[in-house]
Amino acid sequence: xxxxxxxxxxxxxxxxxxxxxxxxxxxxxxxxxxxxxxxxxxxxxxxxxxxxxxxxxxxxxxxxxxxxxxxxxxxxxxxxxxxxxxxxxxxxxxxxxxxxxxxxxxx
Length: 107
Known about the structure:
five-stranded antiparallel β-sheet; 2 helices; 5 strands
């Protein structure tokens, strides 16, 4: 009985049920929202990172990089896309927004 309880506890702790975005070990292809406003987007930017989560990841999947890639002035909508094949994952941040018509805010 103790062994069964221990095994159950280990499985619950290692299940990763609280990780976002959802993904599979063998294959998954998911997308979803992160952020949205009432601004009307007319351009799309994308930035990606790839690798094996927990071991090695490389790339820049930041919102800032996605905005730079499309020369966006502001982010109106931010989504994500994730594809996993045999634990190799590609995670992309997709940003929609207006063109860079006005200067960006000073940092």
